[in-house]
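Chain A, query sequence.
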Amino acid sequence: MKRLRLLPIALVPAVVLGLAACSTSGSGGASASPSASASAAAITSCPKPGKASDSVKVSGAVGTTTAPKVEFAKDLSASKPQATVAVEGKGASLQDGDYAQVSYAVYQASDAKKLGAIGFDQGNPQVLSVGGSGFGALLACSTVGDRVVAVGQSSALGFNTGGEIVVVADVVAQTPTKATGKAQEQDPSLPTVQDKADGEPEITIPSGMKAPSKTQVEVLKQGTGQAIANGDTALVQYKGVLLDGGKEFDSSWSKGAPTTFTVSEGSLIKGFVTGLVGQKVGSQVLIVTTAEDAYGANPPESSGIPKNAALVFVVDVLAVG
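Chain A, predicted structure.
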């Protein structure tokens, strides 16, 4: 049986969540993928504008999938990281603990070679956490709609490319931490869900409810965003409990942050995939799996899941990559 598991963190500059494919555009050279752990030299506060960051010329519409045109002199250098807001946004100011969808391109400062891009010309914007160090610290002084140009050592900006780099980033949107779709009428024969103030679901199992003969799926809140296709990467909040007794065995809410999954049977149990494929961003989905569509006779060690147990999940779909 496939195990429900987290994906390894990859391609995320100094933050914890990534929705983009693990590939980069541009020719050869070092990857634009950042280091999995922030360098000790990583910035922890907003870099100021400087001669280097001000000199980078960027043209093109902000927040679109088309990559901007970026021009700067070779051998660009900054002794300390610099950041210039090339275009000021009109959206919400980002705060520590928020999540934002960001498209960005990374260039080698020495020769202006493009090392990679996410959200520009390929894939979707990446969901990044705001605050902390590296790129997250830069986002903490940004506004939705900003186009930011940063210049500095890659480690200071949270990337692992080595050397000095230029990053052009569009802050496309703020990502909610809970489902925002329209509430739907719930089937009383299935587990019922009541959200706490922060969006965490409280799940109530109907008295005497028996395991289903087929995995059951119910949309609790109907979102209007992009639909999940098989093989997509999705950012979600989720809680899993046993159908028999309602005991929680796993939860992103308990871990304190949303989670990234690849929605395919190569990564997740069948019932989870059945419940999420076709669901739209903004939706909250109830999934009641059969034992066969969960872990069957081989539950993960120390998971608290008995053999041949039917499971209940409530999943908030926050973003799709």
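The chain has two domains: 51-175, 182-320. Residues 51-175 form a domain with the Chitinase A; domain 3 fold (CATH 3.10.50.40).
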